[in-house]
Amino acid sequence: MAPEPCLNDLPPSAKLVYTVLEYDAPLTQKALVEETNLSARTVRYALDRLDECNYITEDVYLRDARQSLYRLNTTAEEQTGESTPEPA
């Protein structure tokens, strides 16, 4: 198994999805597509890459069990040295 790539090694689409989740999590894949203006396939690929790096967690979306909610892992913030902004 290859070593996990860090955030700097991820493609720009994954970095964009990471940034959107940093400010607006939790979001469904559909909401991420709308927020990022990326194609569904690109968002899916970005989520897969972020998941491989253990940067995100996937939860069941209770309003529609066919979808998942994605949010940043708390350990992802520790790995990058960043923290999510707190609302004013």
Automatic annotation (TrEMBL):
Family matches, as InterPro entries: WH-like_DNA-bd_sf, WH_DNA-bd_sf
Pfam families: HTH_24 (PF13412)
Protein name per Swiss-Prot or TrEMBL: ArsR family transcriptional regulator
